[in-house]
Amino acid sequence: MKIQLNNKNALYGGFVIITILIIITCLIYYINGNRKLSYDYFYKGIYIDGVKVEGLTKKHAEQKIKRELESYYKQTFVKLLYNDKSWDIPLSEIEFGFDAEATVNRGYKLGRSGSWFYRLKTINRLDKKPINLIVSAKYDKVKLIKLLTKIKKEIDFSGSNSTYEYNYGRIVYTSDVSGRKFDLDTNTKLIEARLLNRDFSDVFLEVETVRPTITVDDVKDLKNVLGTFSTTFNSNNYSRAHNIELASKKINNFLLLPGEEFSMDFALGPRTSSNGYMQAPIIMRSRMVSGTGGGVCQVATTLYNAALLSFLEITMRVHHSIPLRYVPPGQDATISEGYIDLKFKNNRDYTICIVSEVKGGNVTIKIIGRKKDGENLRSVLRPVILDQYDPPEPEYVINNGLSNDEIQIRVKERKGLKVVLYRDTYNEQGKLVNSEVISEDIYKPVRGQLAVSRKTYDALKNN
C-alpha cells in the first residue's frame, strides 16, 4: 500500500516539473519574441540593392543606399540617336532618380506586419533565407514626352508622291520621296524601359518609314492612251470658256490608284467666285439660266465619255434634263455641287492618269495607262433613239412691250427622247467582238413658253 502511494507521488511530482519547464520555456520564447518584435532596426537577412542593412535604422539605411547608388550610377544624361542626328536628354530635366525611401520603407516593414507568430516566422525565415530588394527608379513622364515632342518635329517628314505630267504627248515624272514618322508612344515606352532598368546606354529611336501613296513605279510606265474624247465649245463666250479651262486644269494629270474612285464634284471644288469660277449659263429644270460655274458640265461629259471608252467602272452618272448640242443624247453627264456627281472607279491593277487639254475651242480628255501586249481593242459609243415624245401645247404669257404681231420665245419647246447607249468593241481586224448596253435615258419633253401682247393673248384665249 505504501509503495503504491509513493509511485503516485512520484508521477505527480514529475508532471509538475514538466509543466513548470514548459511554462518557463514558453516564457523565455515569449520574452525573446517580444524582444525581437520590439527591435527598432532592420532585421537580419535584409539587403537593399545588394547592400546589407541589418542593424541599421531607416534613416541610416536610406543614406547608405543613396551613397551606394550615387557612386555606382554617375550618368547625368541619356543620348538618343537617329541616323546622323543625336539628342542628349539630361536626367535632371525629366526628374529621374532612385526611390530609395520607398524601398527602405518596404524593407523595414518585413517582420513588422501580421500576427505575433507570423512576424516571428518572417524574421526567422529572413535569417535563414536572406532577401534582396531592388530600389525602383522614377521619372516625370510628362516632361519626357514634352522633350520627345520637340524631337518628333525634327524627325517627322511627310515625304512626297511621285508626280506625273502628260503635256500633249510629252511625259515628265518625278521620283517619290519616302516620309518619316516618329511615334511618341512607342519611343516613350522604349526609353522608359531603359531608364527603369538602369540602362543608360545610347537609345536608337524607332522611326517608321512612310511610303508615299504614289511611287515612281506607279507612273513611270504610263504611256498608252486607253481612251480619248473631245467636245467643242464657243471660245468667244468668255465666262463659259473660262470655267471650262478652269475645270479642265482641276482634273488635268489627276492620278487615280487601283481601286480608287474618282469624284468630279470633289475634284472641281466649290463652284464659287472665290474659287475662280465665273457666272455662265447652266441648265436648271430644262431651262438655261445664269449660274456660277456654267460650263463645267461639258468637262464632266467629256470625261464621262473618255472613261467609257477606257472601260472604267462608272459608279455614278446622271444625264441632263435636256439633250446637249456638243454631245449626242445619252452620252452626257451633269453635276451639281454636293448633290449630283460623276464618279468612276479605276478597275485596272495599276495607276491611271486623267489628262485634260483645252485648245482652240476644244476640250480633249484622255485616260493614260499601260496597255498589255495584244490589248488593241477599239471601242465606239453608239446612241440609239428608241422613242420620241411630243411636247404639250406651248404656254402663252403677256408682255406689254410687244406689238400685236410679235412673238417672243421664252422657253424653246423640245421633244422628249428615249435613248439607249451601246458600247461596241472591235478587234484589230475591225471585227465587232462585243456590244453592251451602257445606259437607258429618258429626256422629258419641254413645253414651250411664248410671250405675246395683251391683245394677242386675249385673242388666243378666246379661240
Describe it.
- This protein is of the alpha+beta class.
- The protein has four domains: 1-38; 141-217, no CATH class; 221-375, no CATH class; 377-463, Resuscitation-promoting factor rpfb fold, CATH 2.20.230.
- 32% of the residues lie in helices and 30% in strands.
- It has eleven helices and 27 strands.
- Strands 13-21-20-14 form a four-stranded antiparallel sheet.
- A hairpin with a 2-residue loop joins strand 3 (77-82) and strand 4 (85-90).
- Helix 2 (58-72) packs across helix 3 (100-108) and helix 8 (238-251) packs across helix 10 (296-309).
Helix content: 25-40%
Physical arrangement of strands within the biggest beta sheet: 13-21-20-14
Query: Tally of extended strands?
Result: 27
Our count of helices gives 11
The domain count comes to 4
The whole-angstrom Rg is 46 Å
The secondary-structure class comes to alpha+beta
The amount of beta strand, in percent, is: 25-35%
**Biggest sheet, open or closed, and with what strands and sense?**
4 strands, antiparallel
What form results from the Cα inertia axes?
Answer: elongated
Low-confidence stretches: none
> Mean pLDDT, as a whole number?
88
What separation lies between the terminal Cα atoms?
164 Å
